[in-house]
Every structure is written in C-alpha cells, then in structure tokens.
Amino acid sequence: MANIQIRKYQDEDSEAVKELFTSGMNEHLPSSFMHVMKQPLTQMLLMCTFCSLMASSKSFLLPVLAVTLLLAGVRQMIAYMFNKHIEASLKNDLNNIGETYLNREDSCFWVAESDGQVVGTVACLPAEDAPEFLELKRMSVCRSHRGMGIAKALCRTVADFTLDRGYPAVILYTSMVATDAQKLYEHMGYKKIRQFLLPEFFAKIINFTLIEYRLNLEEEK
Length: 221
Ligand SMILES: CC(C)(COP(=O)(O)OP(=O)(O)OC[C@H]1O[C@@H](n2cnc3c(N)ncnc32)[C@H](O)[C@@H]1OP(=O)(O)O)[C@@H](O)C(=O)NCCC(=O)NCCS
Known about the structure:
Strand order of the largest sheet: 1-2-3-4-5-7-6
Bound molecules: coenzyme A
Structural class: alpha+beta
CATH architecture: 3-Layer(aba) Sandwich
Strand content: 15-25%
Distance between the termini: 25 Å
Number of helices: 9
CATH topology: Aminopeptidase
Number of strands: 7
CATH superfamily: Gcn5-related N-acetyltransferase (GNAT)
Helix content: 40-55%
C-alpha cells in the first residue's frame, strides 16, 4: 500500500468518485449477461424460438436472426437495469456527498488517493431498514490499483468508524454477480445473512439476487 492514503472526501473529488462508481458498476454487465444465459427459462425461450421458427419457415436464417435479436434484447434489458441504478445513485447520494455523508455524525465518505489521483471509494451511513447498524456503501477500486489491499484498507476504515460510533455491526448489500466483492467481504470476516430477489419485474424473471452481509463487531473486540 505504498503511496496510498485514505482520507475524507472533498468536493473536488466529485467527478472522480462518480466515474469510479459508474465504471465499477458497469464491470458487472458481462457477468450478469452470463448469469441470464445460464437460466433454464432463458435457454428454453431461445430453444423454443429457434425450433418453432425453424419448423415453420424451413429456413436457417430466420431462427438465427430471431435468436440474435433476442440476445441483443436481453443485453439491452440488463444494461437498462444497471443504468437505472447508476443514474439513481448519481442523482441521489453521489450528487451531494457532503450533505448525505459528511454533515451527519454517524456517516462518512472516504477516498483512497495515490499520487494525487482518487483510486478508491467507500462510504457508510445508518442502514435504512436497520438503523441500529451502519451500512457500508460505494466500495470501488480503480482497475489499475486492484490487488494492492486498497479495498481491505477501506473495509477496515469503515469497521473502525463503526466501532468508534458505538454500533455493533456493519451490514452491506452486494449482487450475486459481484464475485470479487463477495471474496473481499468474506475475507474481511463478513458473514452472509440472506439472499433475496430484487423487486423489479425483470430482475425477478432473470433470478437476479442481492446478498446481505454482516460484520459483527462485538465478536471482533
Ligand atoms: C471488489 C473490489 C473493491 C476489490 O478491490 P481490491 O482493492 O482489488 O481488493 P484488495 O486488493 O483489497 O483485496 C482484498 C481481498 O479481496 C479478495 N479479492 C479481491 N479481488 C479478488 C479477485 N479478483 N480474485 C480473488 N479474490 C479477490 C481477496 O481475498 C483479497 O485478499 P488477498 O489479496 O489477501 O487474497 C474491486 O474489485 C472493485 O472495485 N470491483 C468493482 C466494483 C465492485 O464490485 N464493488 C463492490 C460493490 S458491493
């Protein structure tokens, strides 16, 4: 972790933070597409489309074209789902980090800086559905600085802050396709609490789940 400093967010970090968040989220598009392709419902739909068009048109071109269009449609739906989440986050907390995270006693936003460049982010605030815990949010590390222990240091920053504020645990939500993040959190002692489907219709169809993790700090003392 040479040359890496973790410090509180400042207003001039705004664009770099938004960029890191957006690129981090977009990284999950290919794995989400692969997840959808593995679903029996998707495979059945593609197979049925292919076979029925093949039987009715007696041509190979039409079913191949239809399946290609269907795949492009699925890709678009996934991109739409991610974009909706990214846009909502950019409009809400990430549009006013000072107000959301820095003006309150029990929340904070940090960045990891390397040679004057923001290369990582993390935040925490009282969890909306469980205000007795702090929720870790906005964990992201720039691709060029991965594998250096920056995310581990950001996790420790949140755990220390949470302990300092007298909360018993940190919770967080991550998606089933964020496998690097799952490994990170499990490595840091977080335990899986539950897995649940996102409420959106399309997410239900493609069986897209979120995982809730918890780090119990009473055990860590
Ligand atoms: C997940 C993420 C934050 C990890 O950042 P990082 O700085 O590379 O992580 P670290 O170097 O601190 O590694 C921490 C631990 O996580 C695990 N880990 C992280 N990336 C991993 C990978 N690609 N493969 C296997 N394990 C990995 C390892 O256990 C690692 O510890 P180790 O090196 O001692 O084995 C980064 O990959 C990222 O920003 N991803 C995109 C955004 C994202 O998914 N954010 C999480 C949203 S909830």
